[in-house]
Amino acid sequence: MPDYELPVGTCWEMCPAAERVRREKECRLHRFEVAPGLRGDRPRADPQRAVKEYSRPAAGKAQPSPSQLRPPSVLLATVRYLASEVAERADASRTEVATFVADRLRAVRLDLALQRAGDSEAAVVLEAALAVLLAVVARLGSDAARGPADPVLLQAQVQEGFGSLRRCYAQGPGPHPRQSAFQSLFLLYNLGSVEALHEVLQLPAALRSCPAVRTALSVDAAFREGNTARLFRLLRTLPFLQSCAVQCHVGHARRRALARLSRALSTPKGQTLPLGFMVHLLALDGPEEARDLCQAHGLPLDGQERVVFLRGRYIEKGLPPAGTCEVLVGSKLGGRTLEEVVMAEEEEEEGGDRSKSWA
């Protein structure tokens, strides 16, 4: 559809009033959206908490009116609310938070696609939404296999976020201020993918030479080559958002490292490696996680806290343990909130003040 046919959103709330009324009647309010302190048979929506939910566009259905679409400034404020309020809730599981945030961010992307917006302001919204989504998905960690969150659906939504953002980059003259950072996130999230590597290598030379992209290419090369020491050394140096993007590959990288060690060291009597060495090599969160990882792969420990590589004992069952990734991801928050970290990394990358983009 040509740009001149697209409307401009005029809804200045996170959720249009008509949707709030409808979902109240249908009892489809999430508990994060209910007005506190109100009692009764039917929960009431809090206009300050209700966020527009995703609704798949139906074929032949009329385009939403401008009053149902939030302009870019409201979409950005909505993303900020999700990062500062919902993502930090202490009374909810990480799976519940991730499911809610992913759905509402999907609605943000749809609102943006259905209206006229400049490439620059669209990119800022899409970058913020993707950063928050990566963070809440990464926080799931070992909880991803439990609760209401669907890991496959969340992965698809992250890829959808990357697709929307990269199309936005392709439409404008560019480069956008944060394009190199998010191109690096794309490669890190798709570590080992030939298609992703090819797309990044097709970027203009100025983007490929940016530090964030060069680092992502180095991580990808170490992952492909099976250079465990170099890979985890690089992963330790990544900032928070890049660490969130690559977290989904950490379990697979650790399993591959264990498999190679097993092939190299396994003997009938069993060669050994100190457990502390395994903790350092694989950037694990401590001896307990190292014990669990080794035992999950059939590698016993002796009385001196050494991993014993016995021939024929190494096994792989199911997906590799996700782990908590406190060393590689969680510790990089540094006691700050998600919103504070995203804003701080924006300023570091651009060497200036990005607070205006969150205003």
Count of distinct strands: 2
Specify Rg, calculated over alpha carbons. Answer: 23 Å
Helix/strand-derived category reads: mainly alpha
Helix content: 40-55%
| Low-confidence residue ranges | 349-359
Largest sheet, in brief, is:
2 strands, antiparallel
Overall pLDDT confidence:
89
Strand order of the largest sheet: 1-2
State which percent range the strand residues make up. Answer: under 5%
Summed up, the helix count is: 15
> Looking at the chains present, what oligomeric state does this protein adopt?
single chain
Determine the N-to-C terminus distance.
30 Å
Shape: globular
The arrangement of helices and strands along the chain is HHHHHHHHHHHHEHHEH
InterPro entries: PCI_dom, SAC3/GANP/THP3, SAC3/GANP/THP3_conserved
Region (Disordered): 38-70
Organism: Rhinolophus ferrumequinum (Greater horseshoe bat)
Protein name: SAC3 domain containing 1
